[in-house]
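Hi there. Long-time user, first ticket. I'm pasting a complex I've been working with (about 570 residues overall). I'd like to know whether the download I got is complete or cut off, because the file seemed smaller than I expected. Thanks.
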Amino acid sequence: MKLDKNIQILIVGLGLIGGSYAMGFKRNGYLVSAIDTNAESISFALKNDLIDKGATEPDANLIKQADLCIFALYPHVITNWICENQHKFKSGAVLSDVTGVKSPIVYDIQNMLRPDLEFIAAHPMAGKEVYGVQNSDNAIFRDANYIVVPTDRNTFNAIEMCKAIGETLGFARISSLPPRAHDEMIGFVSQLTHIIAMCLMTCSKSEHLVDYTGDSFRDLTRIARINENMWSELFLLNKDALLTEIKAFSDELDQIYTMLKEEDADGLKEKMRLSTARRALFDKQ
Amino acid sequence: MKLDKNIQILIVGLGLIGGSYAMGFKRNGYLVSAIDTNAESISFALKNDLIDKGATEPDANLIKQADLCIFALYPHVITNWICENQHKFKSGAVLSDVTGVKSPIVYDIQNMLRPDLEFIAAHPMAGKEVYGVQNSDNAIFRDANYIVVPTDRNTFNAIEMCKAIGETLGFARISSLPPRAHDEMIGFVSQLTHIIAMCLMTCSKSEHLVDYTGDSFRDLTRIARINENMWSELFLLNKDALLTEIKAFSDELDQIYTMLKEEDADGLKEKMRLSTARRALFDKQ
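Hi, the file is complete. Here it is re-exported in full:
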């Protein structure tokens, strides 16, 4: 299901993801406006036809026209923004987001939201190693996962509308998880992997090894270029789940260390067979 | 510099790498023969024009004709093979290999070798997630590193000839390192990365997460499909260097764990900036 063609979409926060959402919606014929405190971002987006209207302040007119508003801001500013500006929305407007961690924000927002508005969380698992609206590219959604993260308070209609965002933007797979399960999953498949990539780059004088790195090392460290403000915030917001995942990985690494130290070839081979079998499941997809 | 067009090349061991070497040499017009105990591998290679002649035993005639002999066998069998068959080589023949670990084999071979033969070690850092001569493909060398691993006993001519193997096969970068430094480097950029990929697959019930894995997780686990016999042997042969690298990585991971636990955002950001800066050096290349 695609989004209704007649709705007006407002994007708050025009970075890489906000800009790529805008691009995706505009290319599908939607009316898109945006609010960002950075005047250059707004003028870039207007000039490059990513949006129809823009403002550098929480403009009451723009907000009032929106049927759907998507927050592509740093997590710590979304709740405040909504708190200060929710009176400007028209009744029935649906609010969503693109944040990488859910439990620490979704309940706060839902608890303080006007009863005639609805907040439904979503996580587009897409990105780039570069930032800013200037790098917007809705092609990053093409092979990516889009996860709707509903709570018990969300309505069927808002959940369906949220899925339709993912369909409209062309995500490869759309699924649904409650906040806690989402955060656990993300701690493993995204945050732990970024930490591993970082550690590979920082644990050794790897600048001298550039000449020798093959595909394996490059694959494992592609995501080691990391926006420190955004990711440190996401890590800290998901602290408990992430600590659990680091611990589980670290215990596994200790096991391999011990097997190697004790020259336990059979143990190593068994781990390798398990690893191979599990990874083969991925390649079937 | 390419190899002299008139030399005859013998490959001992026709797996993925032996077969891909054969394919690369044949397509460059060299006369190539091969020895492998598996009759199917030999007949496949003959039928698909990867080799001109083949044998399933250490045929004295084939061995006598070789100017250059490359061993693409499991490490533990190379030394024995050479010990038992070195009397069949013609004087002046050059022997090389493709083994991923060097110190534990190169000195043993050089110590027992006939004085009129020369063994010069090399490591093509290329591979695939599939095995066997049937998957031979010399395109795997195109973006890869080729490392010549000379000892103090190697002659200038043999070192140049060994580099010429890499040039002839079309490797992207050819460099040179002594055995110990090679093994340290490989412990970090190749073996540690394979262990990390394995641990990511084995530490969690990741089969349930297939639907949610994005590019990051797939990149970090591409090499988690691993030939357990070859890799357990390579890990154990490079045990000391590899234990050191696992320890260094593990200590770094512990640091991140502690920073996260103590909510040390500045510490995390500093690690992220270092990681980003080092990884950026790679992307310049």
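A couple of notes from our side: Chain B touches chain A through 88 residues (CB under 8 Å). The mean pLDDT of chain B is 94.
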